[in-house]
From TrEMBL:
<feature type="domain" description="PNPLA">
    <location>
        <begin position="33"/>
        <end position="157"/>
    </location>
</feature>
<feature type="short sequence motif" description="GXGXXG">
    <location>
        <begin position="37"/>
        <end position="42"/>
    </location>
</feature>
<dbReference type="GO" id="GO:0006629">
    <property type="term" value="P:lipid metabolic process"/>
</dbReference>
<dbReference type="InterPro" id="IPR016035">
    <property type="entry name" value="Acyl_Trfase/lysoPLipase"/>
</dbReference>
<feature type="short sequence motif" description="GXSXG">
    <location>
        <begin position="68"/>
        <end position="72"/>
    </location>
</feature>
<protein>
    <recommendedName>
        <fullName>PNPLA domain-containing protein</fullName>
    </recommendedName>
</protein>
<keyword id="KW-0443">Lipid metabolism</keyword>
<dbReference type="InterPro" id="IPR002641">
    <property type="entry name" value="PNPLA_dom"/>
</dbReference>
<dbReference type="Pfam" id="PF01734">
    <property type="entry name" value="Patatin"/>
</dbReference>
């Protein structure tokens, strides 16, 4: 987990260097939103994000860069479909997506889980999540700079 966090931080720092200052807010700040991994954290993070957009000044939420790991990569991708300055709409959209859903609804444990790797490459089937993401993303373009970090559990890379 630490390696994923450090990779996210390094990638974000590269975006917020002096060469990138031209795209930053007038105040010269570079704001980064990072979503972490761990399936159950996906909906929790969106709840926290909604609390932030409700209680913080909008100018403090204009994120220049978004990063995510694992389920956080899903949240980062959805958030990045919205323009900078439209953070409240992004947060509400994501809340509506997660509201009433549990992570288990997006991932289905394979029936042959005891011998995963023999018949299948993973314990969980993410076909439902892929379907939902295709519906949301379609052929839309990302509106923000972002990085996505993932790992292949078989190779460890």
């Amino acid at each position: 987990k630490r390696a994923g966090w450090l990779s996210t931080l390094a990638a974000a720092a590269a975006v917020c260097n002096d060469a990138a200052r031209a795209v930053l807010d007038e105040d010269g700040k570079c704001r980064i939103l990072s979503f972490r991994g761990g399936g159950v954290h996906g909906s929790y993070e969106v709840g926290v994000l909604n609390a932030l957009v409700e209680h913080m000044p909008p100018e403090e939420l204009r994120y220049d860069y978004v990063a995510g790991v694992s389920i956080g990569a899903v949240n980062a991708s959805i958030f990045s479909l919205f323009e900078k300055g439209d953070e409240k709409s992004a947060a509400k959209f994501m809340l509506n997506l997660w509201d009433g859903h549990q992570t288990s609804e997006f991932f289905e444990l394979r029936k042959k889980w005891a011998i995963a790797g023999f018949y299948e490459s993973s314990l969980a089937d993410n076909a439902k999540l892929r379907h939902v993401l295709r519906d949301i993303m379609g052929d839309k373009d990302f509106k923000r700079k972002m990085s996505i970090i993932s790992s292949d559990l078989n190779s460890g890379q």
